[in-house]
Amino acid sequence: MRRREFITLLAGAMAAWPLAARAQQSERMRRIGVLTGAGGEDDLDQKTRLAALFAGLQELGWVDGRNLRIDVRWSTGNMDRTRKYAAELAALAPDVLVAGGTSTVLPLQQASGTVPIVFVGALDPVGAGFIDTLARPGGNTTGFMQSEYGLTAKWVELLKQIAPDVKRAAVLRNPTDVSGAGQFAVIQYVASSVGLEISSVSLRDAKEIERAVEAFAQSGNGGLIVTAGGLAVIHRELIIALAARHRLPAVYPRRLFVAEGGLFAYGTDRIEQYRLAAAYVNRILRGEKPADLPIQAPTKYELVINLKTAKALGLTVPPMLLARADEVIE
Question: What CATH code would you report for 30-146+269-299?
């Protein structure tokens, strides 16, 4: 390159540099805090969901380290830890807080009554008192529901289709959860119409789960219905192992259980919900209020069947269900 051309090029670059620098400096760094529910930092399911959230934000122009600072806390289902981390995140003065799961919403609301909160996968947010109405949430909170109670009815129907000999079902649920009570009520109502006898098993303690399922399995023709919620995710390895040990057909609320050996699941696509949540975070960062953003119901449900587990239980999955399945694990 000739010396004159080089000087001209250098002068142009130096003239442009202050403009670029000023533009970069004028773009204020924003901050979001994310509080997860069940699952720790090494949990692959949690990592996948957060990756979907971060990818969605990046598509909308928010890049961690450039114009966005993301702080994540992993509560692993422990409520004392959840409250502690909620307070920590609120103290960082974020622009938006993201609540992963039902158990994290109230602690974040209690930690800050003004910072906008976007929840992902909360059950019955109106019944839990998180918001006023689905159409007009009010306050500082909005987000995405994990499921509707109509989904719960499908668990009973699908269990009878896959395992028609099941006459009794133990419902594994969190008895202290408002949404858990709603799910159980729907299951009881639908079960009576198909001749299924229902009992309840608390998910609060691993030893309690093991004792209750073992006692339930002593009588024949039994199956399990695992309701949605953080405790089910936390105890999933034990639940799946108990179902296999006692040869109990079981329906689960999420694909995660089936990928780890469960029989089948019907539920929402949580990864998709986290990706969609990025759009609400973006709208709030750009000036909209959570009170004006309606609660979003799930847009995608998935039926996942594990044929290996079905074979181990001596079950033949109806071809109609296999044709309907979004994923078949062999």
Answer: 3.40.50.2300
Fold of the domain spanning 149-268+302-329 = Rossmann fold (3.40.50)
- How many Cβ atoms sit within 10 Å of the Cβ of residue 272? 17
pTM: 0.83
Element (H, E) at 310: helix 307-312
Q: Which amino acid is at 268?
A: T
The DSSP line for 170-207 is EEEE-TT-HHHHHHHHHHHHHHHHTT-EEEEEE-S-HH
pLDDT of residue 300: 82
Adjacent-strand bridge partners of 305: 264, 328
Least confident span in 16-20, 40-44, 131-135: 16-20
CB count in 10 Å sphere of residue 190: 18
Q: Choose among 299, 273, 271, 284: nearest CA to 62.
A: 284
- Residue spans of the domains in the chain: they are 30-146+269-299, 149-268+302-329
